Amino acid sequence: MADTMHDDLDDGLRFRNCNCFCGLKASVKISDKRNENRYRLFQCCPKDTCRFFQWCIPLKTPVSYADDFQQLQEELCVLREELRVIHDKVHPSDQPKKMVKLRFIAWCLFFTVLAVLLSMTML
């Protein structure tokens, strides 16, 4: 279960590492103040000597992932349509020709039956 949670974190938010004013790698902490910033991540000096502080800003937010997904879906639809057009050019369909032939045969059959019926009524 821990691996799954860890995998989820790897696929989630990512932050850029930075150094504090002392040159040390900044620590990431969670705000515990009871205000609108509660549970928000921030970076600070690991030794608290230089008073470095900045809010963690994700490199990609979940919303931007959703936007990327939407854009990919739209591009996929365009590519599918282009593929269909190319396929139709490479393998032209005989369906329209077959339909014309079938309609012609149907009309011929209709007029033949009509002619037979008319000749029978005249007798």
Give the secondary structure arrangement, pairings included.
Blueprint: H1 2-11, E1 27-30, E2 41-44, E3 53-55, H2 62-90, H3 95-122
Antiparallel strand pairs: 1-2, 2-3
Keywords: Membrane, Metal-binding, Transmembrane, Transmembrane helix, Zinc, Zinc-finger
Organism: Quercus lobata (Valley oak)
GO molecular function: zinc ion binding
Mind describing the biggest β-sheet?
3 strands, antiparallel
Strand order within the widest beta sheet? 1-2-3
Extended strand count: 3
Estimated share of beta-strand residues: 5-15%
The low-confidence runs, each spanning 5 or more residues with pLDDT under 50, are 1-9
Form type: rod-shaped
Summed over residues and divided by their number, the pLDDT gives a mean of 78
N-to-C SSE string, H for helix and E for strand: HEEEHH
Overall description:
This protein has 123 residues and is mainly α. The protein folds into three domains: 2-55, no CATH class; 60-92; 97-123. The chain is built from three helices and three strands; from the N terminus they run αβββαα. The chain has helices spanning 2-11, 62-90, 95-122; strands at 27-30, 41-44, 53-55. Strands 1-2-3 form a three-stranded antiparallel sheet, with no helix packed on it. Strand 2 (41-44) and strand 3 form a beta hairpin. The longest helix is centred in the middle third of the chain and has 29 residues, at 62-90. The N and C termini lie far apart (91 Å). Residues 20-59 form the GRF-type domain. This is GRF-type domain-containing protein.
